[in-house]
Structures are given as structure tokens and as C-alpha cells.
Design brief:
single chain, mainly alpha, two-stranded antiparallel sheet, 7 helices
């Protein structure tokens, strides 16, 4: 009896890549260092993530198939601070380098993270290792957490 090829692995890889790109690029781009009290960084409450759109200079990113709409950047920061982290350690939980640093560029930061992971094609793996792994860890600990299933971050597939 022959097994039918479903293309599931290909679909999973594509979804993962799109997710990772969206999360990191969007998060990175929305945080712009601002002059102000204590060198704080101004971040949006909620943002959409799309690395391919927001960081077009990163060559080799997989085609974007899914978006991450409504990433709660400010809520993530608050949650990390509740865990006891302070200052730049909060940002370094997710970002490769400190967004409050002079001249910080979110796309350069994402590119650096991706190179450490194995290149732009590893976008989904990077985001899943960063985001989903944290959500799963919190869930295992019995703590409140973000989504751990694909649709929780990605919603429906975008039209081509």
C-alpha cells in the first residue's frame, strides 16, 4: 500500500519560516530608541510582524505565507520584567542586541540573530526557538502564557 505524499513537511516549514520572520522583524522594527528618561526605549503596545516586508535588505528570507498580527510587544516586556529581569536584560531575552543602544537597527539585529541560527532561511526556526519555546516552557510550569499552536500567532493563511 502506497503512502500518499501530503506535503505536510513543506507546509510546516513554510509556516514556521513565515512566522519567525514576522515576529522578529515586526518586533525589531517597532522599537525605536528614543532620547528620554533613563535611556528608555519607546515600544508600541501592539504591532504586526513581517520580516520580509519590514527588512527587505535581508536577502534569502523565505517567502512570507503567514502574518503575525497583534503581537503584544508591551505586554511581553511587562511579563519579562515580572520575572525579575531589568534594563537591557529584558530586551536581550528576545533581541540579539540592546534596542536602547545608540544607532540600533532592528533589521541588522534580526540579520545577526539569523546568521547565528544558520542564515535567513532559518527564520521560522529562530522565532520558534525564541517565542514558541518560551510559551511552551511557561505552559509546562503552569504559568499563564501566549499561544502554543500555529493559529494562535498566525491566524489564517494569507492570500498569495
Amino acid at each position: 500500500m502506497k503512502r500518499r505524499k501530503s506535503g505536510r513537511n513543506s507546509m510546516v516549514k513554510t509556516l514556521a519560516a513565515g512566522t519567525a520572520a514576522l515576529l522578529m522583524a515586526g518586533a525589531a522594527l517597532a522599537v525605536e530608541p528614543q532620547a528620554g528618561k533613563g535611556g528608555n526605549v519607546t515600544v508600541p503596545e501592539v504591532m504586526d510582524l513581517n520580516a520580509q516586508e519590514q527588512c527587505p535588505d535581508i536577502k534569502g528570507l523565505p517567502k512570507d505565507k503567514k502574518g503575525v498580527a497583534g503581537f503584544t510587544h508591551a505586554a511581553h516586556i511587562a511579563r519579562i520584567e515580572e520575572s525579575g529581569k531589568k534594563g537591557e536584560a529584558v530586551c536581550l531575552t528576545c533581541h540579539a542586541d540592546d534596542p536602547s543602544a545608540q544607532g540600533w537597527d532592528p533589521c541588522r539585529s534580526l540579520a545577526k540573530s539569523l546568521e547565528e541560527k544558520g542564515g535567513p532561511k532559518k527564520l521560522a526556526a529562530y522565532f520558534h526557538d525564541t517565542c514558541k519555546a518560551c510559551h511552551l516552557k511557561l505552559k509546562k510550569e503552569g504559568a499563564a502564557t501566549g499561544p502554543v499552536k500555529c493559529s494562535g500567532c498566525h491566524g489564517r493563511k494569507r492570500k498569495k
